[in-house]
Amino acid sequence: MTLFLGLFEWFANNILQKPEFFIGIIVFIGYVLLKKPLYECFAGFVKATVGYMILNVGAGGLVTTFRPILAGLNDRFNLDAAVIDPYFGLNAVNAALENIGISTSWTMISLLLGFSLNIVLVLFRKLTKLRTLFITGHIMVQQATTVTWIVFFLFPEFRNLTGGIMVGILVGLYWAVSSNLTVGPTQRLTGNAGFAIGHQQMFAVWLTDKVAGKLGNPEKNLENIKLPKWLSIFHDNIVATGTLMLFFFGVIMTILGEDYLREINPAFTATTSFPMYIISQSLYLAVYLAILMQGVRMFVA
To answer: Which carries the bigger pLDDT value, residue 263 or residue 176?
Structure first.
């Protein structure tokens, strides 16, 4: 019994509280169940683990870069600004869980329970009418983490296994039902390609499919629109992101002013000119988004 408790304590401290390793192990087990060669199982574990680590680096960089700008808007104009990006939110929710004394192990337990429930609902699809398995791993982590914080914050008495089970049921039902709503739209759009959408906007996909057919001219689609040749530079994600960040945050930082930004941000050194500070900070946002997307690609792969 002592040995078992010791092993469980080690697993809880080193795996359950380290989402990157927990996700990596889930991927490894999935590869084993698919009867993949051992080297592919190992490669899957490494890519999932490192991808999650890279994702955290990108999210952390965005938080660090955004914070002075958001603080400036709050202080100068009394605006409570927030970033509605899910990767930024993941970092914020993890910090919020730590603030109420909750470790990320509960998130991982809830994720595993939710995923298991999704599998059960699909196995009994003749009764449930649900046929989609949500496997977009990084989105599952985001949503399980967010719902864990909501439930544990609103119901402090359930900051235990009961709360973890509640979160697992909530996210499991959400993944199964909402992704199932995208089956019809996805099959019509792709010519029955045999997959559905498991992401953030599943209800929006379903609603758009219901409304879009009643609006506009179907002959005027993206394939028929002719745009100026110079706009092709925005096909590159880095160029598009960097340009947008430079425009939006350049305007905000110009409004906040050089003196104020020097006061609130130690990184704005005396030898750095204001225009170069604006350019570098704006492009750093594109850098961290690129890092984040690289992590997502590895994680999803």
So the answer is: 176
